[in-house]
Design goal:
With 293 residues, the chain is α/β, with parallel strands linked by helices. It has helices spanning 2-25, 55-61, 81-97, 113-124, 134-137, 144-156, 172-181, 203-207, 224-228, 234-244, 260-269, 274-289; strands at 32-34, 67-73, 101-106, 129-132, 159-163, 187-191, 217-220, 249-250. It has a single domain (32-289), classed as Alpha-Beta Barrel (TIM Barrel). Helix 3 (81-97) packs parallel to helix 4 and helix 4 runs parallel beside helix 6 (144-156). The protein binds zinc ion.
């Protein structure tokens, strides 16, 4: 009886350690592109109590974590175009000084024509990505001004990086997906993969069946990976990501709110294969941004 029990226990131990070592063996150790980093440009940009986010703070955490390139993001305020231009110029100048940085500029949709003119201006300066944050910039994604931004992004072949978690607008993910589907020439990155609302993204699985759908929606797994990567939601999250297509998902740390190491661990915890991790950490971003891997 005791022998039998020992055997069972041993079997469980062996199976357990086997499963564990398998997860560890598949961890990707190569180059990383971080698609979600907030740069301190001016007062009010210090997002975290735990760490600062000047360019030197950002560059200090990159080598240890294998991060080869990182986006630097700013967020425009409404009704202050001088400030918006100053922010965008600061992002562009920093990216020119540090070639490992990818500039992400911003406009406020409710600035109307001025916002479109600013998109044109930064596009001509080589910027590919515009950040929009419905929650902190306080706009509704279904507003016509937002559609005008998406039309402009399509015309300029730009990418719109949208925060995709609203604590108050339960329909926001639907609005974002419709915005992307009706603006097929623009490309979209939904930051945080919807966070706790991620199952709603499965509507994309339905859209993929239509011939007109351009598969122009990408995601970064910032915040969602460290928060849900090792949670009871993990299986559902990984299943959802695979259903939509691992090729659309990219790593993001959301520095300084999260330390890159904990965001990287969050992705490892999700249990993707080595091939899938390589796509998420590196090659998907290369494909989206036209970087030679
Ligand atoms: Zn963020």
């Amino acid at each position: 009886m005791v022998k039998k029990l020992t055997e069972i226990l041993l079997t469980i131990l062996i199976l357990g350690s086997h499963a564990n070592s398998q997860t560890h063996r598949t961890d990707y150790k190569g180059k990383i592109i971080d698609m979600h980093v907030h740069l301190f440009v001016e007062e009010g940009d210090k997002l975290s109590a735990a760490r600062n986010n000047t360019i030197s703070d950002i560059m200090a955490v990159m080598p240890n974590n294998g991060i080869e390139k990182a986006t630097i993001i700013t967020i425009a305020q409404k009704g202050n175009m001088a400030d918006t231009r100053m922010r965008n110029d600061s992002i562009i100048a920093t990216a020119r000084r540090h070639p490992s940085m990818i500039p992400v500029c911003s406009v406020h949709p409710m600035d109307g024509v001025d916002a479109l003119t600013e998109m044109q201006r930064v596009h001509e300066l080589g910027v590919q990505i515009i950040k929009l944050h419905p929650n902190s910039q306080r706009f509704d994604v279904s507003a016509p001004e937002v559609d005008a931004i998406a039309k402009k992004a399509g015309e300029l072949k730009m990418i719109l990086l949208f925060d995709s978690y609203s604590p108050t607008d339960a329909g926001e993910i639907g609005k974002l997906v419709i915005l992307a589907a009706t603006n097929p020439a623009a490309r979209f990155i939904l930051a945080h993969t919807g966070l706790v609302n991620f199952p709603q993204l499965l509507m994309i699985e339905g859209l993929k069946k239509y011939p007109w759908f351009q598969n122009n929606i990408w995601f970064d797994v910032s915040a969602i990976a460290p928060i849900l990567g090792d949670s009871p939601f993990r299986e559902q999250l990984v299943w959802t990501i695979r259903k939509i297509g691992v090729g659309q998902f990219m790593f993001g740390s959301d520095f300084p709110l999260f330390d890159p190491a904990e965001s990287i661990k969050g992705v490892h915890d999700m249990g993707f294969t080595l091939e899938e991790e390589k796509k998420i950490f590196y090659t998907n971003a290369c494909r989206l941004l036209g970087i030679k891997p």
